[in-house]
Every structure is written in structure tokens, then in C-alpha cells.
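note to self: dont lose this again. the chain is below, predicted strucutre after it. 201 aa total, dont forget to put it in the shared folder this time
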Amino acid sequence: MQNHIDFLLGHFGYLGIIIALIGGIIGLPIPDEVLLTYVGYNVFQGKLSYIFSLISAFIGAMGGITFSYFIGNKFGLPLLKKIGPKIHLTEEKVNRTEKLFSKFGPSLLLIGYFIPGVRHLAAYLASINRYPFRKFTIYAYTGALIWSFTFITLGRMLGEDWVYVERYFSKYSIYLILVAFLLGIFIYLFWKKKRQVRKVM
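---
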């Protein structure tokens, strides 16, 4: 995997980050967290700029999630269930994410990046459920920024130990999911309370 990422970064640079993340979020089998952490490691080595890496990752994540939204808006759930298994988005994952979206709504767009499988489907389901594009961008793009910043910064901080993310991400993913949900709920409640205060004033 590292050789493939090295090839991508060596030949395409920051554009390679953008292309890989667009493909990964649409649903192609690309280990996005590993990619971002390795990008952070390259920043640690001085091969890439921290700021340009963040910007590239943010653009890629935004591009992928936006493209997914418009695919869902144009073709709907039947096409997703038909072609999903071909890109590892099984009907079981679709149904599970659909239930999560109906329960948590926009919060899922914010924290869904941290949940493997969910980040690939949240945008499709948002558009299928006719969630307004303007509101979609607020949550989805904020989540994209937090997600990109988290893993690139993690790779930069870990340095030579960045490989532990690849080794332990799947092992501890359930804990990451739990933390992500708790964080999302906290942010949503804080935003809701702040909005109510503004109405009173």
C-alpha cells in the first residue's frame, strides 16, 4: 500500500491527494485514513507542505462528498443498491446507514467521515432524502475539514510511528465510532442551544 501511495504522491503530488480522496469517498476501495496519515508523515519528513496538504485533502473530501450527493440526487437509491456491491457498498451497509441517517440526520454528515462505510454513503442518502444542498454543505464540508485535519496532523505528530494507524485503526474502529458519535451529539446540542439563545435575544 505504501508503494502505491508513494507512486501517487511522487507522480501527481497534491493533485494525487485530491484524486485519491474523491475516489475513496465515492466508494472506491482506497484506505483514506491510511492515505491521510501517510501524507502527514510526508509532511513530517519535509516532503510535503502541511498547509497545502490540508487544502488538497479538504478539496478532495469536498469533491468526493459533493459528487456523491449529486449521484444520489440524479439516480436515487435503486442504482446505489445495484452498483454498490461492486464498489464494496453492500445493501446491508446501505440499510444500516439509512437507519443512522434517519436517526441522527445532519450530525451523521459531520461525523460520518470517521466511520468506515458511513462516509461513503451519507451523502448519497442525504440527497435521496432530499436534504437541502445548502445545509448539506455546512455539515459535510465542516466534517471534511475536521477529518482531513485530524489524520494529517496525526501522521505529522506520529512521524515514523504513523504505521500504527494502519495496524490499529480496524482493531479500535468501534471506539472511534463511539467517540465520533459522542462528539457529533455534543456539537449538535451545543449548536442547537446557541441557536435557541439567539432566538430569545
